[in-house]
Specification:
By secondary structure, the chain is of the alpha+beta class. It has a single domain, classed as 3-methyladenine DNA Glycosylase, Chain A, CATH 3.10.300.10. The chain has 6 helices and 8 strands. The longest helix is centred in the N-terminal third of the chain and has 8 residues, at 16-23. 46% of the residues are buried.
């Protein structure tokens, strides 16, 4: 797959709900063992800062969440349920916490490698690879120790987002998944009709 322009830091300066919708259709690239593992972003969730009870930043800045308070365009990776990593990208100007959770990708390149990293057969249904935030991180070998704090606006970082010109025909909004607080807010966005959106 060809290389396309990397999204610049300015792309992530806006509020999380705006950045989240603009990320749909963009391509997440993970450099792994000399290969480019790529997937189109098809589902995201927006999390605001101190005013969002569901956000990791609601209680203020800590050592764990400090990436979200820093400059926009950095990876915030956390561990959940004692078994899964989740990838977020910081947004809003430095000092204003905000982030976008990447919930699902449409796998594009190196599906066999993604299947191996997921512990699946090379012929596994592509939907099983990156549909869901935990699957996504496992398929791209993204972990907190390695990727938290990485600059996703730099092609040299090994994890970045590119723009290949694709534009979704329609975006649907719905409540965020797996949270108890502020669960009614329609801050989950997905490409309408895409079969790789998580269930």
């Amino acid at each position: 797959m060809a290389k396309f322009p990397v999204l610049p830091r300015e792309f992530y300066l806006d509020p999380p709900d705006i950045v989240a919708q603009r990320l749909l259709g963009k391509v997440l690239v993970r450099r792994y063992e000399g290969k480019r593992l790529t997937g189109r972003i098809v589902e995201v969730e927006a999390y605001f800062g101190l005013e969002d009870p569901a956000a990791h930043t609601f209680a203020g800045k800590t050592e764990r969440n400090q990436v979200l308070f820093g400059p926009p365009g950095f990876a915030y990776v956390y561990f959940i349920y004692g078994m899964h990593f989740c990838l977020n990208i910081s947004c809003e100007p430095e000092g204003q916490a905000g982030g976008v959770l990447l919930r699902a990708l449409e796998p594009l390149v190196e599906l066999r490698t993604m299947a191996r990293l997921r512990g699946l057969a090379s012929t596994a249904n592509p939907r099983l690879l990156t549909s869901g935030p935990g699957r996504l991180c496992q398929a791209l070998d993204i972990e907190r120790e390695t990727h938290n704090g990485i600059d996703v606006t730099s092609r040299r970082s090994g994890l970045h987002v590119e723009d290949d010109g694709f534009a979704p025909l329609a975006i649907v909004a719905s409540p965020r998944i797996g949270i108890r607080k502020a669960a009614e807010r329609p801050l989950r966005f997905a490409i309408a009709g895409n079969r790789f959106v998580s269930k």
